[in-house]
Amino acid sequence: MSTTARFLVFWDRPNDPEAFDRHYREVHIPLARKLPGLRSYVITDDQVAVRGEAFYRIAELHWDSMEDLRASITSPEGQAVADDVNVMTEKYAACRNMVLGPAEEVL
Q: I want to staple 54 with a disulfide (CB 3.0 to 4.6 A). Which of 49, 59, 75, 99 is the partner?
């Protein structure tokens, strides 16, 4: 099944990579797995920047629709994930988020 709504998170290099990774895997991912309607959660730590510095980690979360994504991130589980992101940004690293809707293939 093709997903049509994506939530991207771009993490800067943390001040303590070991503590960040431990928190991310032991606390953050288990919280995110509870998000209603979440179809997949993919992370990558191996990127090559074309311009500027590469991010430390990029996470991509997928839902079937924008409505599903909106319902998920406004749910109690979504609030728990957002609260944990706030903890992580205060303790370890800045992050940026982006929501992508349906894509148009042009080639």
A: 49
